[in-house]
């Protein structure tokens, strides 16, 4: 809970409006009784009366209350407040924003001054992109250490996924996002493919979307599976060192989700690389795929994961089949990927040991 003191509000006003800003009163709307501050932090607006340059002003200080409607985290709420700050004054008769800020770990109010874009600064990690190892293997240079790397990926995922959270609404949100988000399945269908698209026409896309509704309702029964996830575990987000250590980049789509998403994402890429030169999962990439999945199951005992994996396979299958993201696929590779996407939802349980049957 946020607990604000008078001195914190006064400090904010000086940082936002200048050193001559002075707080006169604070309380609930219509009442400057300072006891009203006790409710702040639960989404209750706080009326401020303050003076700047000898002029008396009034303003309302608000935070959003977290809820299960896509506002569980402060970054969810921050995005909405940033939208309101940027756009409210452009609408006729809308209240004008006077400031945007955040509350830091010590409950101080920190102003954000005229934001235009945000950035992040990360540490520099050692290693090379894992997709370069897959290219090397594709060219014929396969080592037993490559199998150990795949197993280590699985062990790392197993440790991450062992942390669970009892929050069914958050699980439902992740499944909604998987299907309906602009950067997930429906977004890919709309934006990552031209329409019409001969290799997978609009009727096939519509049938796929309708089938996913059945899967959405099926997955509502699996909310107990909510776990810590990475969210985007693919070969471009993994750095591998020469001694076999690895690091991961670009965690996406939230801290909590369905473990099947992480497991499927890397697995589908083993399929992709195998399809270059073969019409199926085979050879060294099949060895990597089997080592990766077998190690994960050995570490977690989670065979239930295959009950829920198919929609995540569709998402990642659409990514790697997209002509926008992967314009250079041979026609035979893209055709197999579309077969996979079109077939994988038909089994109630993903048959990971016989993945090639989905390619026909």
Automatic annotation (TrEMBL):
Gene3D superfamilies: 3.90.1200.10. SUPFAM superfamilies: Protein kinase-like (PK-like). InterPro entries: Aminoglycoside_PTrfase, Kinase-like_dom_sf. Residues 118-274 form the Aminoglycoside phosphotransferase domain. Pfam families: APH (PF01636). It comes from the Bacteria. This is Aminoglycoside phosphotransferase domain-containing protein. It comes from Pseudodesulfovibrio nedwellii. The lineage of its organism: Bacteria, Pseudomonadati, Thermodesulfobacteriota, Desulfovibrionia, Desulfovibrionales.
